[in-house]
Structures are given as C-alpha cells and as structure tokens.
Design goal:
alpha+beta, nine-stranded mixed sheet, 43% helix
Length: 386
C-alpha cells in the first residue's frame, strides 16, 4: 500500500515548480551544482519558516531528527556550510519571482473587499526591519543602527501583499513610490498616510485616474472653492479646495476635496484629502481607517515569519529569507481560500507547524478539532520512539 505524503510534501506540491525551475535557469541558480540544488535550498528555508528555526544548526538538527520522513522530498542531506554558501551566492531574485507566481494564483481565489463600491482598494505603506550594523554593515541606516525597509502595496481584497519592494532603511517612502511606481490600474483607490504627500506624485496618480485618500497636512495652504452637502455620521465639513502654496499650486492645480471628520472612537478631529468627488464623505473616512489593515499585516509577518532574525549576514542571504517568508505567507493564504478554511492564518500556520511531518491528508488536518490535534501529536511522538 502506498504511503501518504507528509503535510510538508503536500505543501510543496502547491509551489509552481515549472515557474520555479524557469527562474532557477534564468538566474543560473544551479550552475556548477552537483547535489544541493536551489529547490533543496528552498525546502530548507521553508522548513525554517514553518518551524520557526533561529539558526542553521537548529535547522540541521530539526531535519536530521525527521530524516525518515523527508527522504521523499528529494533531500539527501544538509551541511551548514553548503546551506550558508547557497544563501550567500544564489540570487534572491529566484525566490522573488516565485513570490509573484504564487501571488497570481492567490488573486484568482480571494474574496472582494467589504466596501460596496467595485473599485480595487489598496493601501501603501512601508515598515522598517532593524538590523545590527556591526553584523550587517551593508545596511547602514543611522550612525549606530542598521535597517532595511519593506514597501508594500496591500490589496484589501484577500489581504494580499500585491507588490513588495525592499530598500535600504534611509529611503523615504514617497521617493520609492515615485521611483519604482506601484502597479495601480485606472479607477483603483489607494489610502496613504501623510508621508506620501508629494503633490507632484499625487498629480501623476490623478492623471492615471487613480483615486487617493490621505490626511491633509496641518500647514496646508488652500482656498475653499465650493461645498458638498454635509451628510454621514461624524462628517463636519465637506469642501472643495484649491492649493495656494507657492509651489504646491503648480504641482497640483486641480480641485481637491477636503473632509473634516470627528472620530468617536479616538475622539479626534481628522482632515482627509482626496481627488474622489463621488463617494460619500463617511465612506472616504472609512477607506482611510481601513489603511490600518496594512499595519496589522506588517505586525503579523514580523511576529509570525522569520524576517527579524536571519540565517546569513550578506544582503543576498537576508533578501532570500524575506522572499521565502513572503512566499510562505502566500501559500498559507492560498490554502485558506482554496479550502475555505474557517479560522485565521495564525491558526493555520500553527496547525501546519505541529503536523508538518505527519503522513496525513492536508484537508483532513484542516478539519481537525483542537482535542484531535493533540491526539495526532501524541501518535507522532510515539511513532518517533520506535
């Protein structure tokens, strides 16, 4: 009788292998390689992500303890020096390409955002990942600190990181937005914080028919040119304005909509700025409030993925680990939406972590109740003793 695949084996079958190997060939990842291929490297780093391993020694020990359960994955062994060399030398772009292939799969499954309008809804933000400057000298941020910065276009349909780029920590958020250009389609809506207020860039968004929602700066120079009827809970003013600053009026010469809003929860007066003249003022306020979903996303990946402690010190090793971590996030998302899993991604990640080398069907594991999961763990421990 044919043995069942392990949960790890089933997870790896969800990875688009053809596209992966295509990227390996493009970036010559397996050139002059005899045994430890790029695919083996990916399996090893993915294992460290799932099992939350902090060091290469810990990874090797964890794999060796389960050697009889991963031979079917194609691994023939792992040495610390070989793994370290692979992280330092193989291009991280292989794993970046894999991330975007997985993303295209997820987008076909994700539910729409909770708003009534049909426009695509995004948030743009960045988060700093601190590094020790003495260990990562290439990531100089301040005089005694190191850091890199992750910039993300967050899709509210499915909570997906729709576009990710990583820069040095000194790169300003709006500079990246202008230089790289986030892939935004016409009629999409983005919510951004005040760090992205650059009227020349906002004008370029308007020319592409992209709607933006942000908070107005306190020193904004403008003149009121008209009024919208005030309606909606918390809406105090709904005005049309023109910028009058010496430079800003040249950067953005069209009318903008400025909405003054009182937030009952925080007891704060907020002033929003947008180029969308049709949506209700209360909806504009709610769109901006939804921007905090990207903050929760950054918090989640920092707490539950290994992107704060690294297995190598080179820039390539750090970038490789981050892209594999992000691909694992998409694998979890794909499983959740494909199987209509009712619980959170955190619960799903814990479930996979505890049953990774079990010879069970993934679908069966996803339907386990907590008390049954404990029984599966007991079976695994007893099996390992004999």
């Amino acid at each position: 009788m044919r043995k069942l695949e392990t949960i790890f084996g089933e997870l790896l079958k969800l990875v688009p292998r053809y596209q992966f190997e295509k990227a390996v060939n493009q970036y010559q990842g397996d050139r002059y390689v005899k045994s430890y291929t790029t695919w083996h490297q990916y399996i090893t780093i993915l294992f460290s992500q799932i099992k939350q391993k902090d060091s290469i020694r810990d990874i090797v020990t964890g794999l060796e303890a389960n050697e009889s359960r991963w031979y079917h994955l194609g691994l023939t062994g792992i040495h610390r020096s070989t793994f370290s060399d692979a992280n330092n030398k193989r291009s991280f772009q292989i794993f970046e390409d894999l991330f975007y292939h997985l993303l295209s799969r997820c987008k076909d499954l994700t539910p729409k955002h909770r708003f009534k309008f049909k426009n695509e809804l995004y948030s743009i933000d960045a988060s700093v990942i601190d590094l020790c400057l003495s260990v990562f000298p290439w990531a100089k941020f301040r005089k005694t600190k190191g850091a890199i910065k992750m910039h993300c276009l967050y899709d509210h349909s499915g909570a997906l990181p729709s576009f990710v780029t990583i820069t040095d920590g000194k790169k300003h958020d709006v500079t990246v937005a202008k230089e790289i250009g986030f892939p935004l389609s016409p009629d999409s809506i983005i919510s951004i914080d005040r760090a992205y207020i650059d009227y020349k860039w906002l004008n370029s968004l308007d020319e592409k028919r992209v709607w933006f929602v942000t908070r107005a700066k306190s020193n904004i120079d403008c003149v009121v040119t008209g009024q919208h009827p005030v309606s909606g809970k918390g809406v105090l003013k709904d005005q049309m304005i023109l910028l009058t600053g010496p430079r800003t009026k040249n950067y953005y010469s069209k009318e903008l909509r400025m909405i003054e809003f009182y937030d009952e929860e925080t007891k704060k007066h907020l002033i929003f700025l947008t180029n969308n003249m049709k949506l209700a003022a209360s909806t504009i306020a709610t769109i901006y409030k939804s921007r905090w979903q990207i903050e929760l996303f950054f918090k989640w990946i920092k707490q539950n993925l290994k992107i704060k402690s690294f297995l190598g010190t080179s820039k390539n090793a750090v970038m490789t680990q981050i892209w594999v971590a992000m691909s694992y996030y998409l694998l979890l998302t794909y499983i959740k939406y494909q199987t209509k899993y009712a619980h959170s991604l955190l619960t799903l990640s814990r479930l996979i972590r505890e049953t990774l080398f079990e010879r069970k069907n993934l679908i069966d594991i996803l339907t386990l109740k907590p008390e049954r999961l404990l029984a599966v763990q007991d079976e695994y421990i007893q099996g390992a003793l004999f």
